[in-house]
Amino acid sequence: MIIIYHHKNKVVEVENDQGFISFQQKNTTEVLFEAAEKFENHFIIWCHIDLKDCLSSESLSDIFHHRKIMASYNIGEKFFLNNAIGYIEESVFLNVNKNVTYPTWMMSSWVGGLHASVLKALKNDFRKAKSFDYFLVSLGKLASVRGLLCYSEPQLLNNKRVSLIEYKDNFFVLFQFVKQHYKTRWSLVLFLNLILYERKIKLFPLLYGLFFKKREIRNDSLDTIEVNSSKKVIDTGTIDVIIPTIGRKQYLYDVLKDLTLQTHLPVNVIIIEQNPNPESVSELDYLVSESWPFIIKHTFTHQSGACNARNLALSQVESEWVFLNDDDNRFEANLLENALKNISLYGAECITTSYLQNNEVFKFKIIHQSGIFGSGNSFLKSKFLSSVKFNMALEFGYGEDADFGLQLRNGGNDIIYFPELKITHLKAPMGGFRTKFVFPWENEGEFPKPSPTIMYVKQKYFSLEQISGYRTLLFIKTLKGKSLFKWFNFYTESKQKWNLSIKWSKKLL
Question: pTM to 2 decimals?
C-alpha cells in the first residue's frame, strides 16, 4: 500500500510499509498518478492529514480485496456535490447509508483508495484534473459503469467522530459536473427544479456549466485489469433454488429439467405453488411421478402473491447460497457452476444475471454494480435472509424487487451484474385461477399517481431531491399531448393525484 496524506489539495506526506517516500510538491491528483506509475502493483491510498491517526490500516487489505475496487468515506454530512444532484438522478447510488459499505460513485477526498492499474488505465482521461474532489467524483461516475466497483466504506476509519470543515455548496461546480457527465438537457432540468423546489435562480452557474464539454471514457478502458478477489465467500458452495409458480405447469417442468442438467446441481428446489381457488389441489403431479437429482420441497397454498410465495420459499432455504428463480426461465447447463466461479472471482455475495426476453437485444455487456435487483434471476448468500424479506405492503403492486434490493444495499451488500450469466425470460402468459386484486385507493374518486406502492419505495429509500425530481419528470411526461389551455387544470389534477399517492403510501408503512 502507498499512502498519500494531503491538505488543501497539496500532498504533505507519502509513505509505504517501509517508511516515508520522497515526492515532488504537486497537487494531490498529480502525485496520485505519479505514484501509480512508480508503484504499478500497489493500491494507492489517500488520506487527509488531519485523519492520519484515524486511518484503519489493518482494514485496507479486506476493503481492497481485488483491483477493480475504489472506496472512500466522507467524514462530514455534506458530500462534495450538494444534494441538488438528486434532482436529475434517480439511482440507488446517491442516498448513501454511511453506516455500512454502500455502492456509490460519490467519492470523497477525506480518505479512500484504488489500485494503481486503474489510475494507469485512465491517466489520459483524468490527469489534467486540478480539483482532487472533482477528479474523484468524476472518475467514480464514469468508471463505475465501465466495471469499477465504487463504495462508501466506513471501515476506512477507526474514528469517524472527527470534527472537520464541511463541504460548501458550489452550484458552479454542480452545473459543470452535470454538463460533463449527463446529457445537456439535464442542466436545464436541474435549473428548473432549483426554481420550483428551492426558489433559487442559478442562471450564472447554468451558463458557466454550458461551456464545458461532455467527459467520457472508453467502454473497454478497464478490461485489461485482472480481477481475482482475496475475499473468501464460498465455503460449501451448496445452492438452493426457489421458484414461485401459479398455473404454469409445463413452463415449470422445463425449468426443472434445466436444473437437472446443471453441472453443479442444487441441493434443494423449493417450489411454492399458488392457487387462490379454495377447492383447488396441486396440478404438479410430475414432482412425485418422476425422479429428480435434488430434493424438491413443495408447498401448495391458496394464498396468492409473489411476495408471500418468495418469503415462504426463502424461509425453507438450507444451503449456503440461494438462487431466486422464476417459473418461466430457461438457462444453460453451466449456469450455477459459472455463477459460483464469478462469485469467487469478485468476492461477491449477491449477483444478478442477464435477463433478456426472446429477440431482445443484448446491450449491457460490462460487469458492474447493478442499480436494480431481479427476483427471478439473482444469487444471494443465504446468511442475509435473516435480515431481508419481500415487503408484503407491496404485494400485487410495483416495487417489491427494488425494495428487496435496497434492503440488501442498506444492509451493506452490493449487487453485481454479470452479463455472461444468461437467463432467458420467456414472459409466459399468466396462468391459473386468478382474480384481480383491488387496492383500497381504487375505490376513491381520484386515482393516485404514481402508484402508492412506487411512492412507498421512493419515500422509504430516496432523498427529498430525488423524489422532487421524479415528480417533475412525471409531470412533464404526462403533460405531453395536452392542450395549452388545459395546462392549469392538468397541474391542479396532477397535484391532487400526487398528494393522494403520498397519503396512501403512508398507510402502507
Answer: 0.94
Scan for cell 489520459, then name that residue: 124
Check residue 503 and give left, alpha or beta (phi > 0: left; psi -120 to 50: alpha): alpha
Q: Which residues in 302-374 belong to E strands, given as ranges?
A: 321-324, 329-331, 350-356, 368-369
Cβ neighbours around 298 below 10 Å, total? 13
pLDDT for 308 beyond 90: yes
Judged by DSSP in three states, 66 sits in: coil
Q: Which stretches of 116-215 are DSSP H helices?
A: 116-121, 123-126, 132-143, 171-181, 185-198, 203-209
8 Å CB contact between 306 and 390: yes
Share of the chain above pLDDT 70, in %: 99
Strands of the sheet containing 2-7, edge to edge, are 19-20, 10-16, 2-7, 43-48, 111-115, 69-73, 149-152, 102-103
Contacts of 163 (CB under 8 A, 6+ apart): none
Other Cβ atoms within 10 Å of 39 Cβ, number: 15
pLDDT tens digits, residue range 347-380? 999 999 999 999 999 999 999 999 999 999 999 9
Q: Which three cell numbers stand for residue 474?
A: 412525471
CA–CA distance, 152 with 112 (Å, rounded to integer): 9
Distance CA 506, CA 452 (A): 8
User: pLDDT, tens digit, for every residue of 248-275?
Assistant: 999 999 999 999 999 999 999 999 999 9
Rounded CA gap, 254 and 123, in Å? 50
Q: If phi over 0 gives left and psi between -120 and 50 gives alpha, with beta otherwise, what is residue 499?
A: alpha
Q: Which cell is 450 given? A: 404514481
> Cell match 422445463: residue?
254
Q: Which of 39, 12, 50 shows the shortest CA–CA distance to 28?
A: 12
Asked if residues 28 and 3 have their Cβ atoms less than 8 Å apart, the reply is: no
